[in-house]
Amino acid sequence: MTHLSYDKNDTALLVVDPYNDFISEGGKIWPRIKAVAEANDCVPHMQQVLHAARIAELRVFYAMHHRYRAGDYESWKYVAPIQRKAWNSRTFEFGTWGGEFRAEFVPEPGEIVASEHWCSSGFANTDLDLQLKRHGIQRLIVIGMIAHTCIEATVRFAAELGYDVTVVRDAVADYSEEMMHAALEINMPNYASAIVTTTEVVRAISDSIFAATADELAD
Questions:
Q1: Would you say residue 210 has pLDDT above 70?
Q2: Which residues pair with 112 in a beta bridge?
Q3: pTM passes above 0.85
Q4: pLDDT tens across 154-197, in order?
Q5: 3-state helix/strand/coil string of the chain
Q6: Alpha-carbon Rg of the chain, whole angstroms?
Q7: Biggest CA-to-CA distance, the chain
Q8: For residues 39-63, b (16+ Cβ closer than 10 Å) or e, as one string?
């Protein structure tokens, strides 16, 4: 495994789509990902990584999917298949419980929610890149939903923009183990510098705190 080291001055945690519809019992999409998400303890691991990032004072950013509103897509000439599914099911509908952050992932003061993405990449047609750059971020730790769509698309786009990316493999989930394998073992290794477990990334974040404290004491 590549040695992991994170500096809070240039590293951020990026949480992708922690909506109730995705990761809460009763959510519209939860039944489709429940088996995979529970098998790898995805949601508890997401909470662990978020908690570690906050303790380490890493900046936290959120890349959230567009919340369905009445009239969306109706006048569009072309609608991508993934968007048509969201349209038909009214996924993450604005003003509903499903379109809200799961309680454990509600942003704290100072954490940044980028403008909502319409398809899969957290960067496409949003202000995420601008917000990261304005805060001096060059490295990203990525967790959330869904491995082969929004996570993979966001990681690819991040690499294109020059970010160094770590994906936390057991803090993401998908509709099947086959899709998880394709995303984590075949596709994302081409774009992510590291694909690691929650245990590994939390340890690295904690070690970075001690290293920073030691440097401060030495000064």
A1: no
A2: 61
A3: yes
A4: 999 999 999 999 999 999 999 999 999 999 999 999 999 999 99
A5: CCCCCCCCCCEEEEEECCEHHHHCCCCCCHHHHHHHHHHCCHHHHHHHHHHHHHHCCCEEEEECECCCCCCCCCCCCCCCHHHHHHHHHCCCCCCCHHHCECHHHCCCCCCEECCCECCCCCCCCCCHHHHHHHCCCCEEEEEECCHHHHHHHHHHHHHHCCCEEEEEEEEECCCCHHHHHHHHHHHHHHCCCEEECHHHHHHHHHHHHHHHHHHHHHC
A6: 17
A7: 62
A8: ebebbebbbbbbebbeebebbbbbb
Whether pLDDT at 217 is above 70: no
How far is it, in rounded angstroms, from Cα 143 to Cα 173? 9
Kindly compute the dihedral angle of the four CA atoms of residues 25, 166, 162, 155, in this order, to the nearest 10 degrees. -30
115: Cα within 13 Å, side-chain hemisphere? 9
pLDDT digits (tens, 9 = 90+) for 60-113: 999 999 999 999 999 999 999 999 988 899 999 999 999 999 999 999 999 999
Residue-wise pLDDT for 123-148, tens only, equals 999 999 999 999 999 999 999 999 99
